[in-house]
Amino acid sequence: MMFDLREPIYQWGERVIAAVDLVNDGSYPGVPEDAVLAATGTPGEIVNVGHHGDSNTPVYLVEFLTQAGDLVVVGCLEEELVRP
């Protein structure tokens, strides 16, 4: 069954801000599960846009610069991001 992909509202290269604490769900290696990867208000940049195949939901890879000065790349959903 084919369906049209839902268009993403954010684009590659766009600056965004974490709208919520982005927490490791166990899929981010080397970081304890439930650790905050990027806190609410952390600025980032979209580095890739994909889709979750089953739900037709855009998924964004966002590079965040944490308060500690580390770069982390986190998979995010639209509701987890806002524009500056």
From TrEMBL:
Superkingdom: Bacteria
InterPro entries: Nitrogenase_MoFe_mat_NifZ
Keywords recorded for this protein, A-Z: Nitrogen fixation
Entry's family note: Belongs to the NifZ family.
Protein name (record): Nitrogen fixation protein NifZ
Taxonomy of the source species: Bacteria, Pseudomonadati, Pseudomonadota, Alphaproteobacteria, Sphingomonadales
